[in-house]
């Protein structure tokens, strides 16, 4: 019986290597691993001919996914493999837009070092600077200003970076924009709602005063006091 078993085992067809998964499955996995920051997994899939420029949800590429989540190692790897740094997803966001939206400073630095376009606009006419400002990422605002992004540029509806940061009360982003000479007299292009940055700054002033009051109660000395001076100076008013 043992001999028959051995013979039966020996007579089996040799095992074949498992077939590679379909390309669309590999591409989906590539997008997922890029978002997770799995450098080894991304390299393995690219070596297995997964598409470096595969488009996932909303047309985002692996580089977009890595930029969104701040996966600097994967960003570096994809750029080394010649990922299209200026590529845009369906809503016109580049990888630099995505990094700016999420305040991924290390990723922004990598993209800027690789000549990402600070002038790129999404379908709303917004620059990466607009996206950093509206989300209150002061560090990203500073980096993009240093990279010569256009501080006076307006989106499709005419909003500047200062409009956006001031309206939402992003104090430190407003301070940086004011120091860089953002135009406080610029008007938006929506005729029914003409809104100057100074009007947005009125909302900011309420925030500044509230913040200062809270800090006085806590006996803390924050930056709100000198920031208020910046805003009042820009408005041409007195405290």
Automatic annotation (TrEMBL):
<feature type="compositionally biased region" description="Low complexity">
    <location>
        <begin position="1"/>
        <end position="15"/>
    </location>
</feature>
<feature type="repeat" description="ANK">
    <location>
        <begin position="124"/>
        <end position="156"/>
    </location>
</feature>
<keyword id="KW-0040">ANK repeat</keyword>
<dbReference type="Pfam" id="PF12796">
    <property type="entry name" value="Ank_2"/>
</dbReference>
<feature type="region of interest" description="Disordered">
    <location>
        <begin position="1"/>
        <end position="23"/>
    </location>
</feature>
<protein>
    <submittedName>
        <fullName>Uncharacterized protein</fullName>
    </submittedName>
</protein>
<dbReference type="InterPro" id="IPR002110">
    <property type="entry name" value="Ankyrin_rpt"/>
</dbReference>
<keyword id="KW-0677">Repeat</keyword>
<feature type="repeat" description="ANK">
    <location>
        <begin position="58"/>
        <end position="90"/>
    </location>
</feature>
<feature type="repeat" description="ANK">
    <location>
        <begin position="157"/>
        <end position="189"/>
    </location>
</feature>
<dbReference type="InterPro" id="IPR033635">
    <property type="entry name" value="ANKS1/Caskin"/>
</dbReference>
<feature type="repeat" description="ANK">
    <location>
        <begin position="91"/>
        <end position="123"/>
    </location>
</feature>
<dbReference type="InterPro" id="IPR036770">
    <property type="entry name" value="Ankyrin_rpt-contain_sf"/>
</dbReference>
């Amino acid at each position: 019986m043992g001999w028959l078993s051995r013979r039966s085992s020996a007579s089996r067809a040799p095992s074949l290597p498992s077939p590679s998964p379909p390309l669309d499955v590999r591409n989906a996995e590539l997008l997922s691993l890029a978002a997770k920051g799995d450098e080894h997994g991304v390299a393995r899939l690219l070596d297995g001919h997964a598409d470096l420029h595969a488009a996932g949800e909303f047309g985002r590429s692996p580089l977009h996914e890595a930029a969104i989540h701040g996966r600097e190692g994967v960003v570096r790897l994809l750029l080394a493999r010649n990922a299209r740094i200026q590529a845009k997803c369906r809503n016109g966001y580049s990888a630099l837009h995505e990094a700016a939206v999420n305040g991924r400073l290390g990723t922004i630095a990598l993209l800027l070092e690789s000549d990402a376009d600070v002038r790129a606009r999404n379908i709303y006419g917004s620059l990466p600077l607009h996206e950093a400002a509206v989300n209150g990422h002061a560090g990203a605002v500073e980096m993009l200003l240093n990279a010569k992004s256009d501080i006076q540029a307006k989106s499709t509806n005419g909003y500047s970076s200062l409009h956006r940061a001031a309206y939402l009360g992003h104090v430190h982003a407003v301070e940086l924009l004011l120091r860089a000479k953002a135009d406080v007299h610029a008007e938006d292009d929506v005729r029914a709602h003409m809104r100057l940055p100074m009007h947005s700054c009125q909302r900011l002033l309420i925030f500044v005063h509230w913040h200062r009051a809270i800090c006085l109660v806590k006996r803390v000395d924050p930056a709100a006091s000198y920031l208020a001076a910046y805003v009042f100076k820009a408005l041409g008013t007195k405290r």
